[in-house]
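Page 47, continued from p. 46.
Same chain as before, 255 aa.
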Amino acid sequence: MRLTLIVSGLAIAPVKALAVLSRTELAVGPDGVAEDRRLFLITPAGKIVTLRDFPALGSVRPELDLAAGRIALEFPDGSVVEGPLTPSDQQAAGTFLGKRRAGRVVPGPPAEALSDHLGQPVHLVLAERIGVGWDEGPVTMLGSGSVDLVADAASAGRDLRRFRMTVTVAGTTPFEEDTWVGRRVGIGELVVTVTEPLGRCVVITRSPDTGTPDWDGLRALARRRGPNGIILGVVARVVRPGTVRLGDQVAVDAS
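Result:
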């Protein structure tokens, strides 16, 4: 009997490379979620800061309120640093994965605290439009059946935060989402077209809490899919914007 596919997880990363945050609903526009990867970090030399190079950033929890113009950062020691989301006139831009990232520098205590946390100066940058910060596409999806198979009995591998996906879908068979490439998928009010599988990197092997390696996820994927199949999840573009909520049904080949 075919299980009903439902949304079992929703997440965003308000600041690229910082912790992902679970949500009960997301408003998804043509270019993605307004708060998702809306800010990013860049060095004075113009290098985009990523979790690959600075895994300790994954333990910093950002809370972004675009309407109020505020950002707060919770650090691993429990301290919270907040400040206004007021960009300066200083422009900043860099390139990562062939995509130009540009915006205006946001000075203040949060940026200073992140520089102290990393032990080197970085700028906090607000993208002036949605979609600047994401790498692969505005929406990413992962089936729970794929996680169950790859993680096996490894409890660390079942922590969905490490995969940093927009939508997690329950009720799928292992790697079922791969078959959605080229097809339309309805997720609550939202309709997307799945464009490609999502290649994974060393980030999935690191603890979302500490940034230290705690699960050999790339090897686990290679065991299941072969050395040329280090993919998990899919990328999608938005066909019809809408709100997605936990528990919403997911329909493949939606109109």
